[in-house]
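subagent[fold] <- orchestrator: predict structure for attached chain, return tokens only, no commentary.
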Amino acid sequence: MLEMFFAPRSVAIVGAGREPGKLGHDVLNNLLQYGYKGQVYPINPKADEILGLKSYPSVLDVPGPVDLAVIVVPARFVPDVIQQCGEKGVKGAVIISAGFKEAGLEGVKLERQVVAIAKQYGVRIVGPNCLGIIDTVQPMDVSFAVGIPPRGNIAFMSQSGALCTAILDWALANNIGFSYFVSLGNKSDVDEVDLMEAWDANPNAKVMIAYVEGLRDGRRFMDVARRVTRRTPVIAVKSGNTEAGSRAVSSHTGSLAGSNRAYDAAFRQTGVLRAASIQELFDYAIAFAYQPVLRGNRIAIVTNAGGPAIMATDALENSGLKLAPLSKETVEHLQAQLPPAANTYNPIDVLGDARADRYAVGIDTALKDPNVDGLIVILTPQVMTQIEETAQEIARLSRLYDKPVVGCFMGEAKVSAGIEILTRERVPNYPFPERAAAALRAMYDYRLWLERPAPELKQFNVDRERVRATFARVREDGRNTLGDAEARNIAEAYGLRVPKSKLATTPEEAVQFAEEIGYPVVMKIASPDILHKSDIGGIKVGVTGAGNVRDAFDLLVYRAQRFMPDAQIWGVQVQEMVTGAKEIIIGMNRDPQFGPMIMFGLGGIYVEVLKDVTFRIAPVTAQEAREMVGEIRSHHLLEGVRGERAADIDAIVDCILRISQLVTDFPEIVELDINPLLVREAGGGAIAVDMRLVLSS
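subagent[fold] -> orchestrator:
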């Protein structure tokens, strides 16, 4: 898949330049300089020869087949070049040229024209507005980057070309190897999903990493990522998470950034590890590229300094990992081999005067212990420390065990030679314990994903026709919001419990219904135009007695007419008052990239203030729904505190799954809130008291 980009037998550089410093010259020079073994054809109608190669006026004049064209001409000429590539039978094009959708409306039109021509001929495109591609496996460098990274097994993709150049420079300085290095630019055709599929199960891509500004098709990304991450770790850093950042993304490559919480949910549900920064991205990447995946969460520490060991212990605890409990045999062996002053429990402190041989005893003994899943080796430079020799011992011993070993050589000038050895021998090193712990946590998260059972979606027996009919009536009225009675109808069609309720159009009807339902009752203004009733005082709780019901009816209607004079008033909903229950919220908002995003959290009027909520992309599994309940900060309130009985968690999970099915079955639902969903004690069930639902316009 995408062989035209990663195994082309011939490459044409369209816009190859004769003068050094020109983009077309530098791209051609990179291709020749870094060992590409296929046929190379410079394309320039004004030159006969460039860099010792015969030049051709166009790709149509090349005598042999061309697998890949690299286009470095002004944007206005690109449509004609793509047309010629199509006629020639070129399979792939890397469009380095800028001036497309990132440049405004005219650029958008130009990019669409290029894509339409390419589709007509079956030409795949990387770019435009990109740095190019570097492939150290073949090898092939069709970019304008300075230098090529060492060969490694990290496959990198980025929407930002400038970021690529900075990362390449950093990689060269730190001897970090890559297999593939792709700048996607505007992603007019080939995108992150295509590359994940192309690199899937590729032994040269032990880990895939990505800088993402936006995704074109969130659902396809989730489908492919869920499959790929079962074999290969995928790590992503997503920018454009703030409102200002989102605007910057749009102006940068014309991408729609989407909701940050939607990306969080999508990554979590598909096994993609999310890094918070470029530093984290590469901290995680080198751990996966160099070491076996962590099998458990029990970590040992070997150190020559107490303070850093305490920092590492805190970092492990804060990241959810555990300090490994060393076995009795391990402790006794360490006591026999190390000086009396050494700490033989975890962390294993080999003391400040430890030389390489003493470090080796601590490392080897820790790795032999079946209670240890991974190891951090901390070294601080002291007069007697054998930095290079210790690094060599760490590397030697790490190869003997199927457990991840990471270094934490703290300092810079004195420890640099040791760090070089670790990097060369494929042991990741981190300058501070917190970064080492974070990398191991990422490995543990990936292990949990690998051990996760395949998702199973529960399907309920529901009344879809009842929902369709309700929506049709709402549309006929020229509305896209549902009133209380209509929302109740939808809830009941999908098996959600609702309180007894009737719509009263007069005070006398309200009294009649209240007495039928039984006091006390809740009374709410009924209007398709008033979505947040409490904002206008449109709810009365705990109403008892006929007189109070009449007064409440008149007050609710008065307030609605006063604060929203144009609202359509249907009357007042008289509803059973549910007591002895906890308030939660289940909601849905349709994300432009990923579709229906389910929300769960603490409900009632405080949801907007406390924001104690969590999200998943629908459809969700029972396991995901249960995890949502456990993720909110206030989950202890639902599990029971200070003698209280636990809430009915099973009922909450059931409601989440039913709403997930509803919004998946009916993509016209763009917003939905059940607030509150009143949850009784375990076994008592949950009741959807108030539901708000908005359809697409």
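orchestrator: received. Logging for downstream: The chain has a mean pLDDT of 93. The radius of gyration is 31 Å.
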